[in-house]
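Board notes (copied after class):
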Amino acid sequence: MKADNCSLTSLDKAIQMQFTSIHLPGVGQPNVMFAFDPSAPASKRPMNLQPLNPSAPAEQWLAPGASDSTNNEAFCTVTTPYYQLRTLIVEAPIDKIRQVAEQAYRALLADITSSSHPQLVRFWNYLPQINVGVGDAEVYRQFCWGRAEAFEAHAVALPAATAIGSHDNQLRITALSSTSDTQVQHIENPRQVSAYKYPKEYGPRSPSFARATWVERDATGLLLLSGTSSIVEHNTLHSGNLTAQVAETKRNIDHLIQNFATQIDTSPMQLQPLAMRFYLRDPAAQALAEAAYTEHFEGYPAANFFVADICREDLSMEIEGVFAPNTAT
């Protein structure tokens, strides 16, 4: 497998004038590691989607310490003292998506687990024509099959992740990992069946991700929310009703936040949202989506909206986000 070449240009001259900064935990001078900004170079841009609301601040993720970028035949790697980011971009014919996904994940996992930053923190997956195909031949189900076989071969804990349909012909996988002395814990939501335990009706292999991941070091932490939608237990709710799906998604997020402290080795804490990303299937529904977000996510920062296909055809939207402990007294 030969990945597309990734530019290793710095982010110093990014076009976006306003950013929401996400500081990965750790002590040291923060530097931009990657950004959800269409002007960022491929090696530091997890996705290739254009924003529906380009005036909203883009996310830039900063890591403590200096960064170094390398580019091998398979993928690009950005390394900082505590974190690494790998970006793989490869042509992905939809009739071969299972094989391409398995090969890509095997390469990524082998490189991560043998590196100085072996702990999986977060994955972003953008795959073409995600809903094309009938039944188990659907692109997303085939992708999940290949990904699951790669994870099974490496026997590692499943991290937070997002899988979204892009509008090009490329499979783009971005993996964030950390050093072994960084505290990383993967979180489930009692309101939802763990994705990796979904019944066979959703495909031959279940999706391989946790509902969220908590990452902490040097007395600071972040909760990284996986792509979350209107799924309760394992069932889609409110098919065809975008506003109701947004409200149900908020209930899922609330429930995860309320329960996450019971799953990590720390005292209860309040979390505040730092950034939210909203994936919308139908661009014509942008105004409705923004109104529903404003109504149900009161007190949250403005979301970045992107047009993208969602993993289930009966889902109109999906949201991911980042939360930090509220240090206000």
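Comment from the instructor: Confidence is low (pLDDT under 50) at residues 8-16. Helices lie at 97-113, 139-154, 242-260, 286-296.
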